[in-house]
């Protein structure tokens, strides 16, 4: 008998284009949208390798581990890279970016992560975009963790390349992503002799063979499951309403932060200022974070609690609250498991979390 995951009809060009339009609506963008079948690192690398080249000077804002990755790609492309590094427990400011741009007038490319799920911070893209636009540089934004969790307006904010993924607040799989591309970015890519061509990393191939061709013939056979999953993500957001989805994530973040403060046991928010805390995940500073996370998961294997990555594993743990996990039930379960791991009462944390949720 037919299998719903295996016996799928090929995805038509018309269906593929309709999914692009839904992604564009999600981003409130009039720019071209390219859907890529692969984790979001694929379009992120494609944007950098298309937009940077020897002779370029790039400002790479580092507020977490992905900024380091972008810097490495930019250098590999031959760009002169200026790293603007800020503490991972804070956010960069528009003033800091403007000062860095003023110090190096030749900067022509800026890379930034909107929300860092790994460190729990989020950056003020609107004011940063204003500084970048005034300078005239091309602006690439990694919005994988922020899409659906907080406001994202690439056109209004002057973002030339906005990369999103389905696996965080949209609640989908990691195997599909997309990027909106401005006309300035297309012109920059076309003028770059080092931009990938006839390659899985080539955005220009999509421009010339798909977009300019009237979206009538796909470059290759799309991965149906991933494309249908992205379509389902868009449908779910449309049904709930984007503003409601964002409010739910903001409420979850506020509830976890308030509950963590009330836990005691040496726990405090890793991101110092609430305004700089990302709605997609809350990071907490705690001694022996790996041990605490392991005990919490042992108490309730379903809770989205994990130790920080790399050097942060000993001092930071992360409570993920994105997609379906942006719920009061998940917040309560996570705080209860953490209270068990720390050997402290859960009631004060649960009361604080529910009050914070209700206030949102």
How does this structure look, described?
The strands form 3 sheets. Strands 1-9-8-7-4-2-3 form a 7-stranded mixed β-sheet, with helices on both faces. The protein is an alpha/beta fold and 360 residues long. The N and C termini lie far apart (48 Å). The protein folds into 2 domains: 13-239, Type I PLP-dependent aspartate aminotransferase-like (Major domain) (Aspartate Aminotransferase, domain 2); 241-359, Aspartate Aminotransferase, domain 1, CATH 3.90.1150. It contains 12 helices and 13 strands. Helix 9 (242-263) runs antiparallel to helix 12 (347-359). The radius of gyration is 21 Å and the shape is globular. Helices cover 42% and strands 16% of the residues.
Quick tags:
360 residues; alpha/beta; Aspartate Aminotransferase, domain 2; Aspartate Aminotransferase, domain 1; 2 domains
Summarize this entry quickly:
The chain has 360 residues and is an alpha/beta fold. Helix content is 42%, strand content 16%. It has a seven-stranded mixed β-sheet, with helices on both faces. A four-stranded antiparallel β-sheet has the order 10-11-13-12, with helices on one face.
Q: Tell me the count of domains.
A: 2
Shape: globular
State the order of secondary-structure elements, H for helix, E for strand. HEHEHEHEEEHEEEHHHHEEHEEHH
Q: Please report the first level of CATH classification, the CATH class of the largest domain.
A: Alpha Beta
Query: Structural class of the helices, strands and pairings?
Result: alpha/beta
Task: Strand order, main sheet: write it out.
Answer: 1-9-8-7-4-2-3
How many strands, what sense, and barrel or not for the largest sheet?
Answer: 7 strands, mixed
Give me the CATH architecture of the largest domain, please.
3-Layer(aba) Sandwich
Taking the alpha carbons of the first and last residues, their distance comes to 48 Å
